Amino acid sequence: MVALIKCKVYGKITCSKLSPSGEFLAYSDHVKLCLLELNRTGSNKVSWNVNKRQLSLDLPFAAHSMVFNRDSSQLMIAWCDKRIYVVQFGNMQMVHVFAPVNMMFAFLCGILCIWKSMIL
């Protein structure tokens, strides 16, 4: 699948990530994070229907890095405020916020959180 995504007002895309299931595409520009839900339509499965999902997150910054968990049910987002947020897609709520002393600790905590969700 090849897609062209343009930011209308805010400028260039700073980061983007496609979920392992291919169901979601998350991207961030300099101001906000956007989440697109991708669904195949038609019997030939060639055409796609793209729906923008509303994120009810009250976060003032753009993301600079993100990763989906293995089953595409959570998105881990690193923001410019040096915190890492984990968003659950079922109810579009934040389930974890990591505010560590240093970023290496934040990275390890985030990896452990994703690893835990893969096992359970």
TrEMBL record:
The chain crosses the membrane at residues 97-115. The lineage of its organism: Eukaryota, Viridiplantae, Streptophyta, Embryophyta, Tracheophyta. Keywords: Membrane, Transmembrane, Transmembrane helix. This is Uncharacterized protein. It comes from Cuscuta epithymum. InterPro entries: PCN, Quinoprotein_ADH-like_sf. GO terms for biological process: meristem growth; meristem maintenance.
